[in-house]
Design brief:
Structural class: alpha/beta
CATH superfamily of the largest domain: NAD(P)-binding Rossmann-like Domain
Number of helices: 6
Number of domains: 2
Helix content: 40-55%
Number of strands: 7
Shape: elongated
Order of helices and strands: EHEHEEHEEEHHH
Largest sheet: 5 strands, parallel
Strand order of the largest sheet: 3-2-1-4-5
CATH topology of the largest domain: Rossmann fold
CATH architecture of the largest domain: 3-Layer(aba) Sandwich
């Protein structure tokens, strides 16, 4: 549970491939969370009486009805993203009882994790979080970083991955390219 503003969150990248992730809610916030889960190849389940068309198209499983106890069966992660305080609290309660990490959109202190704003360039991922204090600020910082991390980073990461897969160290050319790209960050 994110108990107070002084809590230090542990950053982690999870492999969600094929894992059941339940999003309770059918609006824009739920849609954003579901899109990111889909990018991570999660098995996205959406539960809400009303669901935006875009959200319905990204979910693997859609239940057009109110949330009910038991909806988190076999869930790996849960997301409470409705406009109802009572429903979000009920989702958080069930998740806690079952030991399922939960993100609560309207009250981060009831959840176990905050979802960062993420910049992706191929295999490179840079995550920015304010611990739930201001998702808008995290997005703004991520947007600023996008200019510094251009598309060349995707190819560079793939070359480094190939070198590592082949048991080789990055050669001098790759090392120089990394240094050149990092120097742009310093301005």
């Amino acid at each position: 549970m994110i108990q107070d503003e002084n809590v230090v969150l542990y950053p982690i990248f999870l492999d969600l491939s094929g894992r059941r992730c339940v999003v309770v809610g059918g609006g824009e916030v739920a849609s954003r969370k579901a899109r990111k889960l889909l990018q991570a190849r999660a098995r996205v389940v959406v539960i809400s009486p009303e669901i935006q068309a875009e959200l319905e198209s990204v979910a693997v499983e859609v239940h057009r009805r109110p949330y009910k106890e038991g909806d988190l069966d076999d869930a790996y992660l849960a997301f409470a993203a409705t406009d109802s305080r009572e429903v979000n609290a009920a989702v958080a309660r069930e998740a806690k009882e079952r030991g399922i990490p939960v993100n609560v959109a309207d009250r981060p202190s009831e959840g176990d994790f905050a979802v960062p704003s993420v910049l992706r360039r191929g295999g490179l991922q840079v995550a920015v979080s304010t611990g739930g204090a201001s998702p808008a600020l995290a997005r703004r910082i991520k947007d600023e970083l996008e200019e510094s991390f251009g598309p060349e980073w995707a190819g560079l990461i793939e070359e480094l991955r190939a070198a590592r897969r082949n048991g080789a160290e990055a050669d001098e050319r790759l090392d120089k390219e990394v240094s050149r790209c990092l120097s742009r960050l310093r301005g």
